[in-house]
């Protein structure tokens, strides 16, 4: 996906961000991309998703355009009718070194 590659190039040049900040932004970009891809794969419009999950179409648009930082409960509401969920997974060893001091 071109968006991911663009972000990879940009984040290499953002020295003011911590690795943790970069990881969080990277996660948000991937999550939004997954939501958008799942919605399009199912052929569901934002308005139809609104009807299915109860999150207003305008809010869905802001999420998909990365203009808001949605609450976890909102993400779950959106993911459910798309047949998706979130999972907690181990941090890969290559990323773990940056966050060890924070736990």
What does this structure look like?
This protein is mainly α. The chain has one domain (2-86): lambda repressor-like DNA-binding domains (434 Repressor (Amino-terminal Domain)), CATH 1.10.260. It contains six helices and no strands. The protein has helices at 2-12, 19-41, 46-53, 57-64, 72-79, 93-99. The chain is elongated, with a radius of gyration of 15 Å. Mean pLDDT is 84; it is low at 99-103.
List the quaternary state of the chains.
single chain
Shape: elongated
Name given to the CATH architecture: Orthogonal Bundle
Q: What is the overall number of helices?
A: 6
Q: Give the helices and strands as they follow along the chain.
A: HHHHHH
The end-to-end span amounts to: 32 Å
**CATH fold annotation:** 434 Repressor (Amino-terminal Domain)
Radius of gyration: 15 Å
Spans where pLDDT lies below 50 across 5 or more residues: 99-103
Q: At the first level of CATH, what is the class?
A: Mainly Alpha
Number of strands: 0
Number of individual domains: 1
GO molecular function: DNA binding
Protein name: Transcriptional regulator, XRE family
Pfam family, one: HTH_3
Question: Would you kindly provide a brief summary of this structure?
Answer:
The longest helix is centred in the N-terminal third of the chain and has 23 residues, at 19-41.
Observed structural traits:
disordered C terminus; Lambda_DNA-bd_dom_sf; elongated; mainly alpha; 103 residues; 63% helix; 434 Repressor (Amino-terminal Domain)
């Amino acid at each position: 996906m071109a968006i991911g590659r663009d972000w990879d190039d940009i984040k290499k040049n953002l020295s003011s961000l911590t690795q943790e900040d970069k990881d969080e932004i990277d996660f948000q970009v991937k999550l939004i991309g997954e939501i958008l891809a799942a919605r399009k794969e199912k052929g569901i419009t934002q308005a139809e998703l609104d009807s299915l999950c109860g999150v207003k179409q305008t809010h869905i648009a802001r999420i998909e355009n990365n203009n808001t930082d949605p609450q976890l409960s909102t993400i779950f509401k959106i993911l459910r009718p798309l047949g998706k969920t979130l999972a907690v997974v181990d941090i890969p060893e290559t990323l773990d070194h940056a966050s060890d001091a924070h736990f």
